[in-house]
Amino acid sequence: MSVEIEKNLKLSVAPEMPAHLETSTLEGRNKILGLWFFLGAEVVMFACMFGVYLALRNSTAGGPTTQDLYEIPLVAIMTTILLVSSLTSVLGIHEMRKGNFRGVQLWFGVTVLLGAAFLSLEIYEFFHYVDMGHTFTSSAFGTAFYTLVGTHGAHVLFGVLWISGLLYNTRKEGLTDFTAPKFYVASLYWHFIDVVWVFIFTVVYLMGMVG
Amino acid sequence: MATFLVVAVFIAFIALIFTGGYNSDFLDRARKTKIWDWITTVDHKKIGILYIASGGLFFIFAGVEAALMRIQLLFPNFDFIGGATFNQLLTMHGTTMIFLVAMPVLIGFMNVVVPLQIGARDVAFPFLNALGFWLFFAGALLFHCSILFGGMPDSGWTSYVPISLNDYSQGPGVDYYTVGLQIAGLGTIAGAVNFLVTIINMRAPGMTLLRMPMFTWTTLVTSALLIFAIPPLTVALFLLMFDRLFGGNFFNVAAGGDVVIWQHLFWIFGHPEVYIVILPAFGMISEVISTFSKKRLFGYTSMVFATVLIGFVGFMVWAHHMFTVGLGPMANSIFAVATMTVAVPTGIKVFNWLFTMWGGRLKFTTAMIWAVAFIPTFVMGGVTGVMLGTAPADYQFHDTYFVVAHFHYVLIGGTVFGIFAAIYYWWPKMFGRKLNEKIGKWHFWPFFIGFHLTFFPQHFLGLFGMPRRVFTYESTPMVDMINFISTIGVIGMTIGSLAFFYNIYVTTRYGQLAEADPWDGRTLEWSIPSPPPNYNFAQIPLVRGLDAFWLEKMAGKKEMIPSEPLQPIHMPSSSHIQLIISLGFFMSGFGFVFRGFELGALGLAIAFFGMFMRSFDKDRGYYIPKEELENVEKGA
Ligand code: HEM
Ligand SMILES: [Cu+2]
Description:
Chain A is an all-alpha fold. Helices cover about 80% and strands about 0% of the residues of chain A. The model of chain A is unreliable at about 1-15 (pLDDT under 50).
C-alpha cells in the first residue's frame, strides 16, 4: 500500500475503528452474506411476478389498457425519487466508513423521507387508476399489475419501517461493530428495491406505453 | 369473527390468571422446565431434533391417510370412505409427505450434522434457524387444523387450477393449503440461508470446499436449490390465494386469466423440489456406505460435480410434468432431452456407490442395509423416470398409476430409505444411545418387502390404463388383483414402521449407551462425545484432508489436532421471540383462511412487531468460562 493511501485511510477512519466496520466481525460478515442469499430468493420471486405480469398485461377484459392508464411524468418523478434515495443511502454508508454517526443518521433519515415520498406518490397513482376503472378485480391485467407493483410497494414500506426502526434503535449506541452491519445490510436491501423498480419502470411503464 | 374474539379474550384471561394475579411465580417455574428449554432453544442440535420429531409425527398422520386410501381401493366399487373423503386424504397425504415429512426430517439432519461435520460450534444465524423451525411448525399446524375445522383441501398436492378455485373446491380447505404452505415456506427459506452462510463462512481451518463430507456438500447444493425454488411456489400460492380470497383474476379465464400459469410456477418449484428431497438422501447414504465399507468415497470429486450438475439441470426440466398440456413439439422435445440428461450425473453417483463398496470391508449394520437397499430401488425409479421423460410415451403414462409407481420408488426407495439409514447411523450421535440392531432388521425386511409389493405392481396398473387419483374402479380382470396385492403390501410397511417406533421406545428406555465413535467413523462429528456438548468442539479442530477424523486415526491419534488454545466460548442466548413471530403468522393464517381479515392483519402486525423486538434485542449471548470447559473435558 502506498504511503499516500495509508495516510488517507488514517484520516478517514476514527482512530480505534477498523476500515470496514461492517465486516470486522464474523457476525457482520455472516449477516451480509445472508442478506445476499435472501436477495437471491427475492430476485426469483420478482422474476416470477414479472413473468405473470407479462403474460397477462394485455388481458384487460374490455377495461382500460396500459396505454390508456400510464402517464410517464408521474412515474418518472417516482423513479427519480427512488434513485436519489439509493444515492443518499450510499452517502450514509460513506459516512459510516468515516466513522461519522451524525452523517449516517442524516443520510439514512433522508433516505427514509424519500421512500415515504415515493410511497405517497404510488398511493396517489393507485387511487387515480381505480378512478379510471382499473382495479384489482377488474381484469387479469388489473390483478397482475397490482400484485407486482403492490409487492414492490410493500417492500418499500418494509424498508422505510426497517430503517426508521434502525435509526431509533441505534440513536444512543452509535456506530459499533454490532450496529454497522445492520446499516450496511439495510442499505443493500434498499438498493435491491431500487433495482427492482428500475425493472418495473422499464417493463411495466415504458413497455406499456408502446403496447 | 366473533367466535375468534371470544376465544382470544378467553385465552388472554387464562394466561393472566396463570401469569399474574393468582399465581405469580408460574412464569418463573415455567422458565425452569425442560419444555421451556426446548421451545426457546437456539441450539442447532436441538432444533434438528425438533424438526425430525415433528416430521415423525406427521409421518404417522400421512401414513394413516395412505392406508385408508389403499383400503378404499381394495375392491372394485368398494364403499369405504367414498370419493369426497378420498380426495381430501389424497391431498393431505401427498402434501404432508413432501412438505411436512421429507423436508423437515432432511432439514433436521442438516441441522444436527452439518455444523459438526464442518467443525463449527454453531450455525451462522442461531435465532433465524429457530425461527425457521417454528414458522415451519406453525404452517404445518395450521395446515392440519383443516382436519378439525372446515374440511381438508381436496385438489391434490399439485392444487391445479381451476379445480382448486372457489367454484370447484368450496370451503376453506385449499386456503389452509395456500396459507399453511406459505408460512412453512418462509421458514424453509430462513433455514436455507442459514445453511448456506454457515457452510461458506464457518468451516474449521483446513476444511476446504473439496474436503467437505458428502452430506455437507449435498446440504449446500440443496440449500441453494431451496433459495431459488421456494419463491416460485410462494408466488404461485399468492396468486391462488388472491384469486380465492380477494377476487383476483389470475386464473379466471372469463376475465382474461390463464390457468397454465399455475402449472408453470408450480413445476418450476416442483421439479427442483424433488431434487431437494433426494440430494440430501444421496449425501446420507454416501456417508453410510463409505463408513461401513471402510473406504473413502469412490470418485469423491465426480460425486461433488454430479451433485452440482443435478442441482443445475434440475431447474431446466420442469415442463416434463406438462407434456400433455400442449406446449408444442418444440418445447416438449427440448424438455424431454434436458430431462434425460439428468440421468447422466445420477448414473455417475450410482456407480460411485457401487465402486465404494467394491473391495471394501463391508459391515451390514441396519444403517448399511437401508443404504444398500436404496441403490437398486432408486435406480428403478430413475429408469421409469427416463421412460416418463420420453415425451411421446408420456402421453400414455401421464396421470396413470405408472407415475404413482415412479415417484414412490424415488421418494420411498430414495428419500425414505436414505432417511432410515441416516436415523440408524446418526442416532447414537444425537441421543447417546444405539438403536437396537435386531429390531432394526424387523423394521427393514417387512418395510422393504411391503414397499415393493405395494408399488411394483402399480407400474402395470398404470400400463393397463388405471388413472391416478380415482377413488374406485370398475371390476376388470387384472386390475382387481393388482389393486388387492398393492393394498396387502401396506401391511408390510405398517409392520416395519411399528417396529421402528417400538425400536425408538426400547432404545430410549433400555438402549445400550453409545461411545463417541460407535461405527469407526470418518468425519468430524465422530471425534466429539455422543451426544455432543452444546458448544460442540471445546477446541476447533485442524482439518488435514478429506475424511479428517479417519486420517488422524490412521496416523495413530485418538483425537483431532486442535487449531486453537482452550479459551472461553461464546454462545447465543436462547430466545422466545421466534415463538411470538410464528404465533403471529399462525393467527394471521387462521384469519385469512376464515376470511376474518381483521384477525389476519392483527396476526401480521404481531409478527412484524416480533421482528422489531428482535432487532431491538441487545442480548449478544454469553461466554462459557475456560474453567468450566476444562472441568467438562476432564470429566469426558
Ligand atoms: C432420473 C431422474 C428422473 C426423471 C427423468 C424423472 C421424470 C419424471 C417425469 C417425466 C414425471 C412426469 C410424469 C407424468 O406426470 O406424466 C415425473 C413425475 C414425478 N417425479 Fe420424477 N423423475 C426423476 C427422478 C425423480 C426423483 C429423484 C423424484 C423424487 C425424489 C421424483 C419425483 C417425482 C414426482 C413426485 C412426480 C409426480 C408429480 C405429480 O404429478 O404428482 N422424480 N418424473
Ligand atoms: Cu420432474
